[in-house]
Design brief:
Mean pLDDT: 83
Number of helices: 4
Number of strands: 8
Radius of gyration: 18 Å
Shape: globular
Strand content: 35-45%
Low-confidence stretches: 160-177
Distance between the termini: 35 Å
């Protein structure tokens, strides 16, 4: 193999790891949360996470969560309020990740969205189908499935009003053994 080809192949194997700022929407229906369902192939684990995504340069985290929900579901949020921050260090499908997650509570403006049992959309990269479903909080309290980011369950069960903010720092959760 030529030196140039070796250098090209070694560059492909190295993935740039970066800190990713996220804004996620915690949308409730009684004792259920609207969550995207994910699967880690290496851990053979189904997990759940609120909908939302990356914060773009120049936008606030609240603007990001509003934009993401509009892009993913075509829905507008109202009564948006800050819940807290989670620092999420993890390994997903063998790749390390590091996120600073801004968590927001909110409601659908169009109440008919609460009648849907399932939502399907394409991720922001346009590559993967994503399924979002209403999931009972009791499933996470019983430890049936992981809810990410870690600390979210604690935040949503302690939420008493829109003015309260709960900050949670997560260190080294979900690390591969």
């Amino acid at each position: 193999m030529k030196q140039k080809d070796k250098a090209k192949n070694s560059k492909k194997k190295i993935k740039k790891v970066r800190l990713r700022p996220l804004a996620l929407a915690v949308i409730r229906k009684d004792d259920q949360l609207l969550l995207m369902e994910g699967y880690d192939k290496l851990k053979k684990e189904t997990f759940y996470r609120p909908l939302g995504g990356g914060i773009e340069f120049g936008e606030t985290s609240q603007e990001a969560v509003e934009r993401e929900i509009m892009e993913e579901l075509g829905a507008e949020l109202i009564n948006i309020h800050f819940l807290g921050i989670a620092e999420n260090l993890f390994v997903f499908n063998g790749e390390p990740g590091h996120e600073i997650v801004m968590l927001f509570g909110g409601d659908f403006k169009d109440k008919s969205f609460y009648d849907n049992t399932e939502f399907n959309y394409i991720d922001g990269k346009g590559k993967q189908k994503v399924r979002a479903v209403w999931v009972e909080l009791s499933r996470f309290q019983a430890g049936e499935n992981p809810l990410y980011p870690d600390g979210l369950l604690e935040i949503v069960t302690k939420e008493t009003n829109a003015g309260d903010c709960y900050h949670r720092s997560i260190s080294r959760q979900n690390q591969a053994e």
